Design the sequence.
């Protein structure tokens, strides 16, 4: 009889130990709930994009991200795709967030495309089909300047892009960014046929997007600021006056990182 009681007590102790051990099933479930709540957008207004990606990974099993824009989003000028700002950002997210270790940032950059052309079905269709949780739209205004797209048409195209993706991807976070700073180059004169400089497009779109209340990062100015801090000259960061080289893309990835992760 004493032996039976002993084994019953031992079994009960084992059950209690399993329930209250943090690494047991009950502890893991509780930890998972806490983790999801810590990145739940409803409980964390204004959360960074990285946290939203983690939330999607934890609740749907997969986080999706995409970028669209011109050749500087596609990665022209880099020695290898792994050296582009998109690939570097992907690697940083995978390393910093265990839930994002398989994240792939889909690249929908198109060489020579203006902000008007990235509205074409061949660009927007695959993006919508991929259903990204976070979509970064590079404004493509290097090409708008070089190809004499008016500021009015530039603003209209950005509004159409925001409307299109907001309606087609209602759960996606949309982030506009400027392209990188450039020098005088063979692709276009400093002042275009409309009497506008490249920086007129940078600051014009920044003001327009700001007035709309959309998320925006001025990559152009932040890269210039970082170069000044590091003693790096702008031409050192460019392959041909427009497209960043490996150094330029690494600076781009560096300046975008806190915007994606800072709380």
Sequence:
């Amino acid at each position: 009889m004493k032996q039976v009681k002993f084994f019953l007590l031992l079994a009960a102790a084992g059950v209690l130990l399993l329930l209250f051990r943090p690494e047991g099933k009950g502890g893991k479930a509780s930890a998972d709930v806490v983790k999801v709540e810590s990145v739940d957008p409803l409980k964390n207004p204004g959360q960074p994009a990285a946290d939203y990606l983690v939330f999607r990974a934890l609740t749907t099993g997969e986080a999706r991200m995409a970028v669209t824009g011109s050749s500087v989003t596609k990665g022209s000028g880099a020695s290898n795709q792994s050296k582009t700002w998109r690939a570097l950002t992907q690697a940083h997210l995978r390393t910093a967030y265990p839930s994002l270790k398989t994240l792939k940032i889909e690249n929908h950059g198109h060489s020579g495309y203006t902000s008007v052309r990235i509205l074409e079905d061949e660009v927007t269709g695959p993006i919508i089909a991929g259903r990204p949780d976070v979509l970064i739209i590079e404004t493509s205004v290097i090409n708008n300047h070089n190809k004499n797209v008016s500021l009015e048409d530039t603003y209209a195209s950005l509004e159409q892009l925001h409307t299109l993706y907001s309606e087609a991807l209602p759960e996606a976070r949309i982030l506009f960014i400027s392209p990188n700073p450039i020098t005088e180059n063979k692709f276009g004169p400093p002042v275009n046929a409309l009497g506008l400089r490249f920086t007129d497009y940078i600051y014009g779109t920044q003001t327009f997007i700001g007035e709309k209340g959309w998320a925006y990062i001025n990559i152009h100015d932040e890269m210039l600021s970082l170069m000044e801090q590091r003693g790096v000259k702008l031409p050192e960061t460019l392959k041909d006056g427009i497209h960043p080289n490996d150094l330029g893309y690494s600076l781009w990835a560096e300046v975008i990182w806190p915007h994606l992760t800072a709380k």
